[in-house]
Amino acid sequence: MSTSKTIAKNTLFLYFRMFLVMGVTLYMSRIVLDQLGVTDYGIYSLVGGIVAMFGFLNSSMSSATQRYLSFDLGKKDEKRLQKTFSATLSIHIVIAILILLVAETLGLWYVNYKVVLPPDRLFAANVVYQFSVLTALVGIIQVPYDSLIIAYEKMNIYAYISLVEVGLKLGLVFLLVIYGGDKLIAYAIMMFLVSLIIRVAYQIYCRRNYKVSKFKFEYDKTYFKELISYSGWSLFGGIASVSRGQGINIVLNLFFGTLVNAAYGLTLQVQSAVNQFVTNFQKAVNPQIIKTYSEGNLEQMQKLIIQSSKYSFLLMFFLVMPIVFNTDFILNLWLKKPPEHTAIFVQLSLIAILIDSISYPFRTGVQATGNIRQYQVIVGTIQILSVPISAVWLYSGGKPATVFYSIIIVTILSLICRIYFIKKLVGMNLQNFFRQVLSRVFIICFLTYGVSLILKLFQFESDWWRLIISGGITFILVIFGLSKQDFFMIKKLLINRN
Asked: Count of CB atoms within 10 A of residue 450's CB?
């Protein structure tokens, strides 16, 4: 129950943060699209996406750094914890320098000679690119500090600092509306400044509260080699992941231009907002999974993985299905006039991340073992396949939405591989997983398909009624997905909340 209470408390803080950031982000997307226009919004999405291909190091390196920090905390070895922090910070500084070199050579060449842009917006695109590069570099160096906060499970800090972030972003929107110059350039600069301020705030907190965050360079060849090896394989997985996201963005640009990039950029906004519902929950669970492994408590680790797999799917399902059933209404309510293809992009992308949510805790379970080379090679290679498959379909005359079918196929194959590796590396009881998770997922999906057919038969007087009814049905299906043990645990948490 102590573990469950910690996870529950941290999840609440992360959800508070998520609703603040998500609400402001979605509101900003509408205002920014209106202020920039479809073409400039597409340019920002595309050029910023190219930088995100370098910034994929954030997620891959963050998982590697967090694994080692959480592992040391599980071992209660503060001396090694400080050594790990200093070593990972040194590695991130070197990586930031390498990324800067690549971004200012290969990346700059691609923006100026390969990206399909209106000629009169080339200068603005270059400015956006440079500030996006700076944002990525700040994020890369900041990873060890963020990972340290997560390892210590101080999720309330994310909520408090997010209050500052929300205020700054709202101020950014106000300034953008009244600014009379090139709004695309102004938006890129202001987004960088907000990112810099927030990153510095996290760093100041760590230095004031954790002695281990004080940088102390100590060269240990063997340990550096271990960290770099682990990070290198995580990096391969990061490259594969960004290929599925921003790589497809570039493919769409080559075939259809910036107007479709605008639709794709808005889809990523929705996908990111929805995905926060699960990633915030998983962020609270991940340190516990790693710590139980470092303590040798594999039974508790497997229990956490199975439970969080089911909860991740149900959380995602609860939000995804009402959006899928009411996509046009929600997009028109949010954007007034969404770009063409946005609705089908959103529906297919949400189905993909719903499938992917089942395997979120599997990634952490594999990472906890430290034996990730074979896992990253196989799963990463499958992920990368989404780009060439998409390119072939589009070259054969496929519509823009066909790229998401390749993503769904790759996501299903990745899930199968992750199930295999979690069984191989931590001895997961697959019978329990199929009984407690997959069997319920299949039943819920079957019932959902029936619900979708029934909803098509009714002509609702108001789109609001359709949204409310579909949301209510989805809630009932989520409750159906919970077991007696789940209700017992929720009851205990409520009773012992203090």
From this structure: 9
